[in-house]
Design brief:
about 160 residues; mainly alpha; about 80% helix; elongated
């Protein structure tokens, strides 16, 4: 069985999905509001789709929308988004020991998919990184379940 299949079949993957499902109504409301704000600001459907898929950070999207509508310079928009998302540096630093056993691409994908609530739910369930392979597999499965559900919920509501 491939590692992806093992991950999807691990009981912690389903637990991560369920835990994120509990907070999904709030995620959906936030995503819907952001999607509506993009369209109401004058962004085209294609621009809104691109922003939702590429900038997976609602606060950053909401900070950038009025700047885009006002025709602010790209550097100002990027600097604003960077400052709004500095909290993700803290998340990344804390998640580093949980993910360092992975190759570059899985770590990069986890970084892209990580968000406030998925980080909180994961670290509440696993306050310390596992040191043995079985524990790491459980943690990765749980994190993956939460990240996948969070991303799908956000995109569905935002789009």
């Amino acid at each position: 069985m491939t590692s992806a299949r093992r991950l999807l079949r691990h009981p912690e993957f389903a637990r991560g999905l369920r835990e994120m499902a509990l907070v999904s109504p709030g995620l959906a409301a936030w995503g819907l509001m952001t999607g509506v704000a993009m369209i109401n600001s004058g962004m085209s459907v294609v621009e809104s789709l691109a922003m939702s898929l590429l900038v997976f950070a609602g606060s950053s999207q909401l900070a950038a929308i009025p700047l885009l509508a006002a025709g602010a310079p790209a550097l100002v928009i990027l600097a604003t988004a960077f400052c709004v998302n500095l909290r993700f540096l803290v998340f990344s630093a804390h998640l580093r020991p949980y993910l360092m056993h992975l190759n570059f691409w899985p770590r990069l994908i986890a970084g892209y998919l990580s968000a406030d609530l998925s980080y909180v739910m994961f670290t509440r369930r696993f306050p310390h990184p596992a040191v043995e392979a079985e524990g790491r597999a459980a943690q990765l499965a749980h994190l993956s379940g939460g990240l996948v559900f969070n991303w799908i919920s956000w995109q569905a509501a935002s789009l």
